[in-house]
Amino acid sequence: MSALDPFYAMLRGESDPFRKHPENLRELQLAAMKERFAERREQIRLLRRRAEDVGVNEVTRHEDMVPLLFAHQIYKSYPESFIDNGRWKHLSAWLQTLSSKRVAEVDLDGLDNVDAWMDRLRTAGHHVFSSSGTSGKCSFISQTQADLDNVTESCVKLGVYGNAMIRRDFGKRPAFLMMPPAGAHRHIEPVLNAAQRLGAETTLMFDEPVLASATISMGRMRRAIADGSAKPSEVAAFQEQAVARQRHTGKMIDRFLDKLTAQREVPVLVQGNWSLHWTLVERARQRGSADGICHPDTVITTGGGLKGTSAPADYREQIIRFYGIRAENVQNSYGMSEMIGTGPWSEVAQGYAICPWIVPFVLDKAGEQLLNPADGLGVVEGRFAFFDLLAEGYWGGFITGDKVVVDFSPAGNTDGLQGPLVRQVGRYADLEEGEDKLSCAGTMESYVRGMINV
User: Fold this and answer.
1) Which of 244, 277, 400, 436 makes a 20 to 30 Å CA pair with 5?
2) Secondary structure of the chain as H, E, C letters
């Protein structure tokens, strides 16, 4: 029997994973981390090198895991020349240092861009996903089909157990998704699959796939404009493309709004992050639409921040009024693309739940010291890190850019939620104190450079 079996059972079973935990969950998590480390250190070169350097041969306590957590920047540590010059074998060699499955044998002849590289790997069973890459450089993580299936199942669990009305109307609500039909982002395919199980029919906001190559090109052009290296002709072409893109996006949003308002008489499910919900509000107001466009039992799912979108301080309240729903109709959640499963926000508990297969770590800002209370009790503030016990294609340990407050021993009415609650979330990069480079990031990147001979 594997130490991971209880966690797969919680993901795939019929019970509520946020409210029904084994009494010895902490011990089960530690045993599963020990098993994962023993397995992955033999498969992932970067992990093995790191473990050797810090002298960790076995995970017997939470502190052992801290130096083995990967800084989120490591997944974009490849030289940009690999993509610029079409060095796809080198890019695969870099990816191999971070992956548990063999990618080196995949035929990479005849590729002309990074999306073709990702497609070729997917065909061979390596479902690579990328970040948004707004800075002009995407992160890439290799996942298996099991990872994709687990993300889908976690989305269903969030829908069913994160909101009573979704659970009540399982499979009956029309679903309106503010997302494209395909793309490089991890959650596109799983969310589409989950929506087909949660909803009666599905309407998408966008009609074109999100391509990593287009995102990289856009980010680099913004960077070139900012540092003054862009040619006037390039700036003009970029601005012309931006206008055309904005015009097309406006048409897609209008079509989405028309279909959404046509369903005013029935409760629907509307999915999107906060920035997209706010974009919909602004577009509707430009068209002269009044608030209250949906049935009052409509549920919206959301998460994340504004992601650079400008909005007033009360944007959440305005979004709720726009749809014509109550605050409890909002299923807000906390998570990230590198994590299998996100935790729902509870107004009663005033916190985000954490999936039982996600082991939370609160670190100091430098990412070096574990701040979790030794007795498992108390409230701690610091940098959020985690270990995902269900990650298959990659190492599940991540250090994020989030500053959080985690309550490890919530008391009183917790809405039935068990385990630690995330009380507050912010991005270091958005706070006055700013973001510092994680102390381990430079060391880890030097490991990678040595492994790929760059």
Assistant:
1) 400
2) CCCCHHHHHHHHCCCCCCCCCCCCHHHHHHHHHHHHHHHHCCCCHHHHHHHHHHCCCCCCCHHHHHHHCEEHHHHHCCCCHHHHCCCHHHHHHHHHCCECCCCCCCCCCCCCCHHHHHHHHHHCCCEEEECCCCCCCCCEEEECHHHHHHHHHHHHHHHHHHCHHHHHCCCCEEEEECCCCCECCCCHHHHHHHHHHHEEEEEECCCCCECHHHHHHHHHHHHHHHHCCCCHHHHHHHHHHHHHHHHHHHHHHHHHHHHHHCCCCCCCEEECCHHHHHHHHHHHHHCCCCCCCCCCCCEEEEECCCCCCCCCCCHHHHHHHHHCCCHHHEEEEECCCCCCCCEEEECCCCEECCCCCEEEEEECCCCCCECCCCCCCCEEEEEEEEEECCCCCECCEEEEEEEEEEECCCCCCCCCCCCCEEEEEEEHHHCCCCCCCCCCHHHHHHHHHHHCCC
pLDDT tens for the chain, 454 residues long, are: 899 999 999 999 999 999 999 989 999 999 999 999 999 999 999 999 999 999 999 999 999 999 999 998 899 999 989 999 999 999 999 999 999 999 877 889 999 999 999 999 999 999 999 986 556 688 999 999 999 999 999 999 999 999 999 999 998 999 999 999 998 888 899 999 998 888 779 999 999 998 888 888 888 888 888 888 888 888 888 888 889 988 999 999 999 999 999 999 999 999 999 999 999 999 999 999 999 999 999 999 998 777 667 889 999 999 999 999 999 999 999 998 899 999 999 999 999 999 999 999 999 999 999 999 988 889 999 999 999 999 999 999 999 999 999 999 887 788 999 999 999 999 888 776 777 667 666 666 776 767 776 5
Fold of domain 146-334: Rossmann fold (3.40.50)
